[in-house]
Amino acid sequence: MNNPRPEPPIAEIDRSPVFLIISLIVTVAFAWPAWLIIKSVNPWGFFMMVPALIAGFHALWLILNPFAWIYEDRIEIRPTWFHNHLFYFKDVTDVQLKKNHFYLKFNDGEVERITINGIAAKQSATLLKVFGGK
């Protein structure tokens, strides 16, 4: 079977270090009490460790993956582990940046709001320039 090679991205948009530190603090806030309860041989520690493991996995995912990948004809935005967006440039007619949100207007008149919490502050202008917005 002939598998095509994945297309390398032209650029990557990074996450904000403050956002990453906050996600690590949330993980520690879940994991520390759960560890103390498990250490005292209480079965409730197991139930408390489940959200701590989910928060830890999400924090690790945020650290290892950039906010967005820019390809030649599209952009892939991954703000969180649960939400992934793929946008093609040929469909986008207008882009505006207002209060940590991108507003994309498509050819059919539909407007989509993208929350960009967690993006590095210096790279929001880069993302806006890629889309060709104002």
Brief overview:
The chain has 134 residues and is α+β, with helices and mostly antiparallel strands. The chain has helices at 17-39, 44-64, 124-131; strands spanning 11-13, 68-70, 74-77, 85-88, 92-98, 101-106, 111-115. The strands form two sheets. Strands 1-2-3-4 form a four-stranded antiparallel beta sheet, with helices on one face. It has a three-stranded antiparallel beta sheet with strand order 5-6-7, with no helix packed on it.
What's the main sheet like?
A: 4 strands, antiparallel
Strand content: 15-25%
Element order: H for helix, E for strand: EHHEEEEEEH
Question: Mean pLDDT, nearest integer?
Answer: 82
Q: In angstroms, what is the radius of gyration?
A: 19 Å
Helix content: 25-40%
Number of helices: 3
Separation of the first and last Cα atoms: 45 Å
Q: Runs with pLDDT <50, length 5+?
A: none
Question: Which structural category do the helix and sheet elements fall into?
Answer: alpha+beta
Gross morphology: elongated
Report the strand count. 7
Record the strand order, biggest sheet: 1-2-3-4
